[in-house]
Amino acid sequence: MKQRPDAQKNRERLLAAAKLVFSEFGVTAPLELVRERANVGRATLYRNFPNRQALFLALIDEALDELDLHSDDFWDLLAEAAVKVVENEVSHAIWDAADIDSDQLAIRHKKLVGIFETPLAIAKQDKSVDPDIAPSDIVLLLRMIGGAVHSGPTTERRQVAMRAVELLRRGISRFRTH
């Protein structure tokens, strides 16, 4: 069922506000702050997102949809995913800390892995990635990048993410240069 344009706009405003509020105050910030920042009523907030978990899932879905629009080149896609980890601290925190129904989280993990399946297969075929790397390893790679990025200063996160991708490239490339 397609939402009315004003309802869709309110949902988008809530998602944008959630990103801002959660990045400013953390993912445990009161939803009331999200509602206020989006400038919508309580009923609108809870009609769109009946609870915090529903909002978290929507934010994850949005990030995955954006990532799915990017390159079929494995390394470009991994770099873009690393940038998403840097730019959207919320997604990183949600993946790590959210008390989300494991079935719901498994669906998102499966989608993330699916986004990388074809680019990874192509990279294996052209021998730019070790054949032992499995699509399911992508979640681990992104957690590694996220851990590196979020342990350092905010101002250096993008640089750290790109360095982490480069180190991963060297580590899992089919033909290592050492």
Automatic annotation (TrEMBL):
The keyword Transcription applies. GO terms for molecular function: DNA-binding transcription factor activity; transcription cis-regulatory region binding. Gene3D superfamilies: Tetracycline Repressor, domain 2 (1.10.357.10). Keywords: DNA-binding, Transcription, Transcription regulation. It comes from Sulfitobacter undariae. It comes from the Bacteria. Residues 30-49 bind DNA. This is AcrR family transcriptional regulator. InterPro entries: Homeodomain-like_sf, HTH-type_TetR-like_transc_reg, HTH_TetR. Residues 8-67 form the HTH tetR-type domain.
